[in-house]
Design a protein that fits this description.
- With 755 residues, the chain is α+β, with helices and mostly antiparallel strands.
- The chain folds into five domains: 139 residues, no CATH class; 193 residues, no CATH class; 84 residues, SH3 type barrels; 89 residues, Alpha-Beta Plaits (2-Layer Sandwich), CATH 3.30.70; 55 residues, no CATH class.
- The protein is built from 26 helices and twelve strands.
- Helix 9 runs antiparallel to helix 13, helix 14 crosses helix 15 and helix 21 packs across helix 22.
- The longest helix is centred in the middle third of the chain and has 52 residues.
- The protein is elongated, with a radius of gyration of 44 Å.
């Protein structure tokens, strides 16, 4: 690829946003805080003794420089003279045996009149020339960087490209040397060769092979350089700034964790749970934390883990003495931080431990003077640099949730970069395979053209047939070209990015050469889209955006005055500038009047600016919901009504009904009194409600007695009219009078209606 520093190879787990339960850790370090001598107003946790401090170096690399023993071993193993002697001499001695034999004892043995001593001398020289070509190819990047760097420092990075194609370049240089040393073949019979050169077929064929190899190796070298240029340009554009920022932040976390260990030792009671999660690389402690009722079981497993860590550390220290690398020491600060960042629980515990050790009595945030006190006199610039790495939104302080969110985001970014680099590496390999097939076909054509006159004579016909057959797979070639441009040239997203396409939200899961896999945010469904199709779409990358703003549009009453809008803006500015909200929103609020809406309403737009992008969906929903509630409360407070107007004020003569808020106990007492009155009214009804069991109620049993009597009168009038028509007026009067003599609640016989 483009070098070892082009990609960070890290394997981490998915990180969720920090929970609000972390707030309980904000003051959990109060038991371990103490005031520093000579400082009556201490604002930080216990200071490090000056004798225990070491010089703070921001540019210090993760791997220490080699020790003298390691340097000596490295020089022995990396000595090119010794290494090349081991490679060249044994094989050269074996190849010298036939050369000596054909030059002395078997000098009369010939092939078509030519002595074989020249051939084996040529083979011996070509074996040595192979390693000479290797040395020349290894020196080309250094020479390129030295001379071309004088013209422009920006092209020095392409020395890595030349270093990556060292083997194809060595083969190309070797073929050139083979052509230069070819006269050695006929050196022993030079006179005979010049006289019979047209009839010595094996020398002619050997010359053709060498010339064809020069062209073929040049084609292969060009293809490999093209692949490396694509890789170098891609990684320098996409990952260079991200990797640099992540390395700086991880370095700051290393220094903070080291200082926290000096203030509160490892496995102390104040940070026992955090230390368990930090060192729990196998996730066993996390399971025990959920299942065990006390800490005894966890402590036993943790002690076993520490014992194994110390045992491995003994071997690590021995290896570190030879190589000078801290990575081999599992108890080194960076090794612990690197292992903790690979897990969600470890990253959150690391952030909590650092925050606990850096906060003092009653403090809920880390401020710059805390770091200045912790790192001591003379490290003000370094402390300011570390605080700048922590305070990404410029609030002037860092809370517990912000610390946890920062560390977990670094862990997630490391994983996303590793995934994206791995996917692009696979895509480059796929492109390399496709081009290698094309190069192989071209190489076959080159060799065939040197050995077959038919191919040379009919080359135009072959090219015409190949062009004609291209129409059958022209669409595939077009899709392939569009996909390559989309992935390597445009590259609108990386793995883990939040994007919007066609008013839908997606998260990038995998990037391949011909397709990309997304995850839908609304349904968690997996979507696979061709890269050629993506090249024609408008893509909004949320993760690459800086601090984003949001707009809310709504309509209000046309009678709203400008003064009310100004009061609304003031209320919203007070909300976003409050200490509990200043970490989420910027202090500017814009209110715009868009239109009059046919003189029936006023269309308003409120614009608010967040302090980060919307890549974190949970954080976005939380901030949006909080602001919308504040917006509704502010509009009611001003007040500002909807398009239909607010109506008269409650409690006035136009709206005498009004609502009074009650506490829970008073509301329960009033409800109980209401239920009691309801039951008493039900028992005083004149008409009892019959017990119908599980039958469906007709609704008549809940009517008052007056309504029931009115219903009887209506039914009697209808039935009486029918009886009058059948039996005459007199009979109707008798029955009607008997009906009217019924007392309330007395049941009328059903036979009366049937007459």
């Amino acid at each position: 690829m483009a070098g070892r520093d082009a990609i960070i190879y890290i394997n981490t787990t998915d990180i969720d946003p920090p929970s609000s339960n972390n707030e309980k850790y904000a003051t959990s370090a109060t038991r371990s805080s103490r005031q520093s001598p000579g400082s009556p107003d201490t604002v930080c946790s216990p200071l490090i003794h000056p004798s225990q401090r070491r010089p703070l170096s921001i540019s210090e690399d993760y791997e220490d420089r080699l020790t003298p023993t390691g340097k000596a071993l490295y020089k022995v193993l990396e000595n090119p003279v010794l290494r090349y002697c081991i490679y060249i001499l044994p094989v050269g001695a074996i190849l010298a045996i036939p050369l000596i034999l054909f030059a002395t004892k078997y000098s009369d043995v010939t092939a078509e009149g030519m002595s074989l001593a020249g051939l084996f001398a040529y083979i011996e020289i070509m074996w040595v020339s192979l390693w000479m070509a290797k040395l020349v190819a290894a020196a080309v990047p250094a020479l390129f960087q030295a001379f071309c760097g004088i013209i422009s420092t920006g092209i020095r990075k392409y020395a890595k490209v030349l270093r990556a194609v060292e083997i194809p370049m060595s083969i190309f240089i070797w073929t050139l040397m083979a052509l230069c040393w070819f006269p050695i073949v006929h050196h022993f019979d030079d006179v005979f060769y010049h006289r019979e050169r047209q009839s010595i077929q094996w020398i002619i064929n050997l010359n053709k092979v060498i010339r064809a190899s020069i062209g073929s190796s040049a084609i292969v070298l060009g293809e490999k350089i093209l692949m490396q240029l694509i890789s170098a340009n891609y990684h320098s554009q996409q990952f260079r700034d991200k990797i640099k920022d992540i390395k700086a932040t991880v370095r700051a976390i290393d220094l903070l964790y080291e200082s926290s260990l000096r203030q509160i030792p490892d496995r102390s009671e104040e940070t026992l749970d955090e230390d368990y999660d930090i060192h729990d690389t196998t996730n066993v402690q996390h399971l025990l934390k959920e299942n065990a009722a006390d800490r005894s079981t966890r402590r036993i497993f943790m002690n076993l883990h520490y014992f194994g860590q110390k045992l491995v550390s003994a071997l690590g220290y021995m290896a570190s003495d030879l190589t000078g690398s801290q990575i081999l020491r599992p108890t080194a600060t960076h090794a612990i931080v690197d292992a903790a960042l690979e897990r969600k629980a470890g990253a959150e515990a690391l952030a909590r431990r650092i925050f606990i050790c850096l906060t003092a009595e009653g403090r809920k945030a880390i401020c710059p003077n805390v770091l200045a006190e912790v790192f001591g006199f003379g490290s003000e610039k370094e402390a300011a640099w570390i605080f700048a790495q922590l305070d990404r939104d410029g609030n002037g302080s860092v809370s517990m949730d912000e610390m946890v969110m920062l560390v977990t985001s670094i862990s997630r970014q490391r994983k996303d970069i590793w995934k994206s680099a791995s996917n692009i590496r696979d895509a480059i390999r796929t492109l390399d395979r496709v081009l290698s097939v094309i190069v192989l076909a071209v190489v076959i054509m080159v060799y065939t053209s040197f050995f077959s006159s038919f191919v040379v004579e009919n080359l135009k016909t072959i090219i015409t047939l190949a062009s004609a057959s291209a129409f059958s797979f022209g669409q595939t070639v077009g899709e392939f070209n569009a996909s390559c441009i989309q992935v390597f040239v445009k590259h609108p997203f990386d793995v883990g990015d939040r994007i919007n396409m066609k008013d839908q939200e997606f998260e990038v899961v995998r990037i391949s050469l011909l397709y990309t896999v997304f995850r839908r945010i609304d349904t968690d469904g997996v979507v696979q889209v061709s890269n050629s199709v993506l090249s024609t779409l408008f893509i909004d990358n949320i993760s690459r955006s800086k601090a984003m703003k949001e707009r809310y549009q709504f309509s209000v009453d046309p009678g709203t005055e400008f003064k009310a809008l100004e009061l609304l803006r003031i209320e919203l500015e007070e909300f976003v500038r409050a200490p509990e909200n200043s970490r989420d929103y910027q202090s500017d609020i814009d209110i715009q009047l868009l239109s009059l809406g046919d003189m029936k309403q006023l269309d308003l737009r409120i614009e608010i600016r967040h302090k980060s992008n919307w890549a974190d969906d949970r954080l976005k929903i939380y901030r949006r919901s909080k602001f919308m509630c504040a917006l509704l409360s502010a509009m009611r407070k001003v007040p500002i009504h909807g398009p239909d107007g607010g109506g008269p004020e409650q409690g006035t003569i136009d709206a005498p009904n009004y609502t009074v808020p009650l506490d829970r106990d008073t509301a329960a007492a009033i409800r109980a009194e209401w239920d009691l009155k309801k039951e008493s009214k039900k028992s005083q009804r004149e008409v009892p409600i019959p017990d119908r069991g599980d039958t469906v109620s007709s609704g008549l049993e809940i009517l008052p007695s007056l309504m029931r009597g009115f219903q009887y009168e209506q039914e009697g009038a209808i039935s009486g009219t029918a009886a009058y028509l059948r039996h005459g007026r007199r009979q109707f009067d008798d029955r009607s009078s008997s009906r009217l003599s019924l007392r309330p609640g007395q049941q009328r016989p059903m036979s009366w209606l049937s007459q």
